[in-house]
């Protein structure tokens, strides 16, 4: 659910001598978000045994389009998107569930090399959702925008509250100030693993810019040693690097 832009850091402690990206990790150390405080957050769910299960987060960017991580689409499944969600275990009375009609994964995505980048996908919904106080469109950054180091950001989703812990049932948020590319790509951090286009798996990174929260990241990967490894901040797909691709996909579908 919560994986992770080239731009973020959780609590930094511990150390590693050998490391590689892990796309099945979860953000840890979060707290329950105020109900419906992140109205563009979606729950991506898959059907199994007649029941629906949460698998990834995502962002509503149009009334019938959702942005998530490409790695969330690696296993063929029947998917649906739930907007207006807070508690996965109960009906909050604000949810809208819509089936996924089409999946568009970035053509350069390679599931065998997550560190190469391009971990982004768009989902066209079978119908438009209704916008209200619980369901809103996420605001995307302008193309090419680069966050300043230590910009205030929050990651949201239904991830684990501690490493190897239980998945959260209620929407969580965690404060993740950004780490700039120069720092994150240094040899003591992620080194050459970090790409300029990177950043609950697929979930949004909301950053405060000019008084408005903008979705700058799609959760991509963390260290294979855990979410709180020293100098291995969570990595996100940098949304501003894909604005043209997003616009082209939506316009042609």
TrEMBL record:
Query: Is Manganese among the key words of this record?
Result: no
Mention one GO biological process in which this protein takes part, according to its record.
proteolysis
Q: Which residues form a coiled coil?
A: none
Gene Ontology MF annotations: metal ion binding; serine-type endopeptidase activity
Q: One Pfam annotation, family name?
A: Trypsin
List the EC numbers from the record: 3.4.21.36
PROSITE patterns, per database record = TRYPSIN_DOM, TRYPSIN_HIS
State the UniProt keywords alphabetically. Calcium, Disulfide bond, Hydrolase, Metal-binding, Protease, Secreted, Serine protease, Signal, Zymogen
Q: Which residues form the Peptidase S1 domain?
A: 27-251
Swiss-Prot/TrEMBL cofactor(s)? Ca(2+)
Where located? Secreted
Signal peptide span per the entry?
1-16
Catalytic activity reads: Hydrolysis of proteins, including elastin. Preferential cleavage: Ala-|-Xaa
- Enzyme type, top EC level: hydrolase
Instruction: Report the PANTHER family cross-referenced here.
Output: CHYMOTRYPSIN-LIKE ELASTASE FAMILY MEMBER (PTHR24257), CHYMOTRYPSIN-LIKE ELASTASE FAMILY MEMBER 1 (PTHR24257:SF0)
Summary of the function given for this chain in its UniProt record: Serine proteases that hydrolyze many proteins in addition to elastin.
Q: What is this protein called?
A: Chymotrypsin-like elastase family member 1
Source species of the chain: Leptonychotes weddellii
């Amino acid at each position: 659910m919560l994986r992770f832009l080239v731009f973020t850091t959780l609590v930094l402690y511990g150390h590693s001598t050998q490391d590689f990206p892990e796309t099945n990790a979860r953000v840890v150390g979060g707290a329950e978000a105020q109900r419906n405080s992140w109205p563009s957050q979606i729950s991506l769910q898959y059907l199994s045994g007649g029941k629906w299960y949460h698998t990834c987060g995502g962002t509503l960017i149009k009334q019938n389009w959702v942005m998530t991580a490409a790695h969330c689409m690696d296993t063929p499944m029947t998917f649906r998107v739930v907007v207006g969600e807070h508690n996965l275990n109960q009906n909050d009375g604000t949810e809208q569930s819509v089936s996924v009609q089409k999946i568009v994964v970035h053509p350069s995505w390679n599931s065998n090399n997550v560190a190469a980048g391009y971990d982004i996908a768009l989902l066209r919904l079978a119908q438009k959702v209704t916008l209200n106080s619980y369901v809103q469109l996420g605001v995307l950054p302008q193309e090419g925008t680069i966050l300043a180091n230590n910009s205030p950001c929050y990651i949201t989703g239904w991830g684990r509250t501690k490493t190897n812990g239980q998945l959260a049932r209620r929407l969580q948020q965690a404060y993740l100030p950004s780490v700039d590319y120069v720092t994150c790509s240094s040899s003591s951090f992620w080194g050459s693993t970090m790409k300029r286009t990177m950043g609950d798996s697929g979930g949004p990174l909301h950053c405060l810019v000019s008084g408005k929260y903008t979705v700058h990241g799609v959760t991509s990967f963390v260290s294979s040693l855990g979410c709180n490894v020293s100098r291995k901040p969570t990595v996100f797909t940098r949304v501003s690097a894909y604005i043209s691709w997003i616009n082209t996909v939506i316009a042609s579908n």
